[in-house]
What we know:
By secondary structure, the chain is mainly α.
Amino acid sequence: MMETAGTLKKTVYSSLMEDIIRGDLSPNDIVTESSLIKRFSVSKAPVREALIELCKDGFLKSLPRFGYQVVQCTVQEIMEMLDVREDLEIGNLKRCFPSITPESLSIFRDNAGDWIRQDGADSDIYGNYYRNQHFHLMLCSLSGNRYMYNALDKVLRDSARFFATYYSSAWDNERESKGVYHHMILEAVSAGNLYDACSYLVKDISAVKDEIRKVIS
C-alpha cells in the first residue's frame, strides 16, 4: 500500500530525530532538502513538512538559501530542562502516590523489560534514550493525569537534543547507570515507600546533571 504524505513526513522526522539522538547529526551540522529527498526517495513536500516540524520543536533552524542547521543546546537550557523534569516528576509522584492502584502498578511492573536495560545489551544510544523515555512516562502515567503526561513527554523529547552528548560521555567514562535507579524506583513504589521512590528519582535525574557538568568542565 502506498505511503501517505503524513506517513512519509513522520518517517523523515523520526529518522532525523534518531540521527540527532545517536549523535550522527551533531550541533551545527547542516542538512538540506535536496540531500533528504535523495536519501528517502520522496518528494519535496514531506521533507519540507518534517523540517518545518523539527524547527518548531527546536531541533533545527532554517538558514534561508543554505539549509537547516542542528541547534546547539546550551548548558543553561539543559539544566533548566532537567529542573523542570524534576519538579514535574517529583510533584506528580507525590500527588498520585496514595491513589496508585494495584492494577496500574501491575502494568508498570509488567513493562519493566521495555524500560530497564538488560544485562548484555549493547550501548546503542537511541535504544537507551527510548528505554529511559518510556520508563519516566510509564511512571508519570500512574497518576492518570494526561496534561502532566503530555508536559513531561514534551520535556523528554526536548532532551533528545543533548542525549547523545550525555550518554556518550557517561558510557565512555563508565558512569552510565544502566537503569539501576529505575530498578530502585520500581521496588520503592511497589513497597509503598514514597520517600525512597522520590530520592531515587532525584538521583536518576541528578546523574544526568552531574555528567553534563563533567562534559563542560
